[in-house]
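so my prof wants the structure for this chain in the tokens format not the other one, which i didnt know existed until like an hour ago. anyway here's the sequence
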Amino acid sequence: MTRKVALVTGASRGIGAAIAKSLAKDHDVIINFASREEQALEVLHTLPEGNHSIYKCDVQDHDAVKVMMEEIVKQYGHIDVLVNNAGITRDNLMMKMSDEDFDKVMSINTKGCFNCIQTVSRIMMKQRAGKIINIASVIGLIGNMGQVNYAASKGAIIAMTKASAKELGSRNIQVNAIAPGFIETEMTQVLHDELKQKMLDLIPLKRFGQADEVAAVAKFLASCDADYITGQVLVIDGGMVM
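here's what i got, hopefully its the right format
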């Protein structure tokens, strides 16, 4: 039985790495990275047996994304799952935010997601099957002080998920989003304790989430058990925004 193929963008650390590890049990996984090759290799070496690989590509670059997808199809024959996880933060109060910080977050988080969806959809439409999973954020649903750029980028991903699901549904392609809340990763470790406590006070379950918990939901959405789910946003936040 031919193993399915999954591409996970920004998978050299954090949530992306956890998703890659989770999918690798049932898929041949391509770990996309833009700058952290050493970390991407470390993730690759932790995956269970399979035809896994790493691929350097900046998702902001539409032409580079196209080349990446073409080479994956040439090597593996198909792409069954795309997880759009690549993303950054450049936090600051709106009045102090630079054009560069706003544009960079929108370019990587939103344009990068669009580039990957647009390119892989052509492949999946020919296959008449595919799963696209976009990693959004609860910040895209409720906003947050000091994160106008990040909130805008993740809100756009949620809207893009719903629009893409409507366009691609007739070709048996499911498009869904995951909106994590406060998940313990390298990105959140740098936050000071006072802010962490404020966030914890907002969570009914009184703990932060783990990357593996997000990965478990991604694995479900990538499976045949989610064949009748599309255009949805699954919130993983311990009840923070209910």
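also thought this was worth mentioning. The beta strands are 4-8, 27-33, 53-56, 81-84, 130-135, 173-180, 183-184, 209-210, 233-236.
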